[in-house]
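Anyone have tokens for Lipoprotein? Sequence:
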Amino acid sequence: MRLLLATLLVAATTACTATTDRAQRSAPALEPATTDTAVCAEVRAGIAAFNEGDYEETIERFVAAVPLAEDQLDGSPAADELLEAVRWYAELPAEDYPEAAISSPEFATYKAITLGQCDPVAPTQTEPPGTEV
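Reply: yep, here.
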């Protein structure tokens, strides 16, 4: 009985470790680009346009981001992934954006890359919290 429990415990631990390792290997590299770069400014503008339902503007912003992402290539996986993501969003037809956002694994992957590398920049706060102007 103890041998059976020990075997089950080892098997469960191994399965969890293997799943975690696979998830870590398939997760996008989150070595963020500097969020105040021109490419990230375009990415954030594209995301904002998408959130407003303006898919044509979304595409325009990602098209503008492509050469900026190319200029940022430095041999790192993060730079390569960001370029791949902005190209994918730039090439996605406007009419496909709503469905892709819901069902496309590529959309989800590239969303994780763009959000991971181009976090929204928090606005600079000039007044302490709770101070009325």
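DSSP finds six helices and no strands in the chain.
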